[in-house]
Amino acid sequence: MLKKMILLFLSCGALLSARAQSAEELLAEAQQLEKQMKEMEALGKYRELLQVSPGHAYAQSHSSLICSREGQRRKEKAEKQEFFNEAKIFAYEALKVEPENPEANYAMAVALNNIALISGAKEKVAAFKEVKKYADLALKFNAEYGEVYHLLGKWNEELSNLSTIEKAAAKVLFGGVPPGSIEAAITDYEKCRKLKPSYILNYYDLAKVYRQNNQETQAFEILNKAMRLRPIYQDDPAIKAECKKMLEDMQ
Fold it and tell me: Using CA atoms, how far apart are residues 158 and 161, in angstroms rounded to an integer?
């Protein structure tokens, strides 16, 4: 009897070891695909990993961020909505497992921000409040999280450019528009640049708000620095092309 129990215990241990090894292999493959800028293939691997390890917060967070980026690439609103909603679900599942995980909170903030940008006035303003909540939580758990400052820069930029209808919705829902300004956006984008100097999208957005704020010299310098950066994310070559186009327009 004791021998059978020992054999059963060893068998269970071997099974768990195999599962763990499988999860590690899938994670390594997914990470490698992300480095190769093959995001949808990476998403497929993360999905496989979540079948083996359903509570894997890293896989859920990265799946969420990939879905958000893929949604931004889509042209049709319905397709965007589908990917953004999936991004929100992945982030929600990650937060259920690790509520203090900074990447999971950031992923939720990104998903909500993307949903806000394709929503009506009331939904947009309501979502912006949630974006700030999760962005602040991400920074609470990791104060050096550069990408979060980029998101807050976008948040400030969007709030400073709200339409009259959106401002009216904010007044009805919250008694006014949440604070946001181009100057605050510049501050946040610059914080991101300091903490994450390789993040090309941040340079592009920073240059745009510098131009909006009539700071052409600063915009020119930022764009030139962006052109010297090595692509890391799938969209980086396209973003660098936009930086080049903006530079040409300024000359």
Answer: 5
